[in-house]
Amino acid sequence: MDIAENPKRWLVLPVFILALALVAAAGALAAGDAGGEYLMLDRPAWAPPQWLFGPAWTVLYIMIALSGWLAWSARGLTPALGVYAVQLVLNALWTPLFFGAHLYGVAFAEIVVLWGTIVATVVMFRPISRPAAWLLVPYALWVTYAGALNLAVWLMN
User: Fold this and answer.
1) Per residue of the chain (157 residues), what is the pLDDT tens digit?
2) What domain count does the chain have?
3) Residue 68: which CATH number?
4) What is the pTM of this model?
5) 50 is in which domain, residue-wise?
6) Whose CA is closest to 3, among 105, 132, 113, 127?
């Protein structure tokens, strides 16, 4: 269904934004002093500066929310949105594993599964809404990089 055909669909956009805000808040609450902890870890030379994570995740979370909303607007509830929801839960779980529990190996295994669910969501969103699928590509790339960084930190610490 075209968004222009049903302007009430716009009323659901805040629900997707709220869902991503809750994912971000869960990570922030579980992380404690993640920024300070990140600076104390042995990191590879290619690790980003600590200040980059906040702006990067803010942009990514907005794109993830828009992606889910576009897919929902196009077809309503579908199995693809179920996979989308799973990746949100996995996203929220990574920070407590890595920063809260210091389980770098478990966090790496979890981020691999997260990456797989993101890719699956992209593939499942593509026939529903190409813009929805494309909005997740930067997220998949960032999580690829974050996974490599997670692995390096695990091996170095």
Assistant:
1) 555 566 678 878 888 988 888 888 887 777 667 667 788 889 999 999 988 988 999 999 999 999 999 999 999 899 999 999 999 999 999 999 998 899 999 999 999 999 999 999 999 999 999 999 999 999 999 999 999 999 999 999 9
2) 1
3) 1.20.1260.100
4) 0.89
5) 3-156
6) 132
